[in-house]
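User: Please predict the structure of the protein below. I'd like the answer in structure-token form so I can feed it into my own downstream comparison script.

Assistant: Understood. Taking the following sequence of 135 residues as input:
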Amino acid sequence: MVDRRLIATLCLIGCAVLLAGCLLISGEQTTVSLQGSAANILTTFVSAEGSDEYRVLALPANTEAQAIVMVAVESGDVQIDLIQPDGAVSFALASRPGTQVTRSGPIRSDEQGQIRYRITARNARNGEIQIFLLP
């Protein structure tokens, strides 16, 4: 007979492997505002844990833009990486609890006009991420 503890351990390991690349966000609200060739992406959340990559249709295809990124969290850590179409990280911004952090840099949309970014969070609470894209 198979040991129940062995089965429980294997199930736990399986769940951990499945969730390893996931970003679990509670209370998430994301809005995307497009105005001509500019865009504003705003995400707020109550709590976040993990990592995930996002693609947002925000610009005309193959367009170079200036990205202004702001991150704020009450507690915990959040990092956002803006990713170029070739997979290279354009720039990264890490939060500091209790303060808003801002950084800007270039980003290029892909053939479909999508912007890629990755959010990584650890014990993050009451946060906001805002990305302005300007031509």
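That's the full token string. The beta strands are 23-26, 29-35, 38-57, 64-83, 89-94, 100-108, 114-134.
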